[in-house]
Amino acid sequence: MPKMKTKKTFAKRVKVTGTGKLKRHHNFTSHFAANKTHKQKVQLRKADLVSKSDYKKNKALLQG
């Protein structure tokens, strides 16, 4: 069976940390900002880790 290729679109959106976790950015930040509170907009700026439930599926997309 051939090797599985890395999904490049996903690889551009996620970075692997030194401990092997997946770091991602939040969505819902680009527009409709007037409807969001200041607290929401501040918290959406920060990066976050991929949840445990999605980790296995997303890690498979990076196997290249």
Q: Could you report the average pLDDT, rounded to the nearest whole number?
A: 93
CATH class: Few Secondary Structures
CATH topology value: Factor Xa Inhibitor
Distance between the termini: 13 Å
| Beta-strand percent range | 5-15%
Domains (count)? 1
Strand order of the largest sheet: 1-2-3
Count of discrete alpha- or pi-helical segments spanning 4 or more residues: 3
Helix content: 25-40%
Which structural class do the helices and strands define? alpha+beta
Chain-wise SSE layout:
Layout: H1 8-11, E1 14-16, E2 22-24, H2 38-45, E3 48-49, H3 52-61
What does this structure look like?
The protein is α+β, with helices and mostly antiparallel strands and 64 residues long. The chain has a single domain, classed as Factor Xa Inhibitor. It has 3 helices and 3 strands, in the order H-E-E-H-E-H. The protein has helices spanning 8-11, 38-45, 52-61; strands at residues 14-16, 22-24, 48-49. The protein has a 3-stranded antiparallel β-sheet, covered by helices on one side. Strand 1 (14-16) and strand 2 form a beta hairpin.
Key terms for this structure?
about 60 residues; 3 helices
Short description:
The protein is of the alpha+beta class and 64 residues long. Helix content is 34%, strand content 12%. It has a single domain, classed as Factor Xa Inhibitor (Irregular), CATH 4.10.410.60.
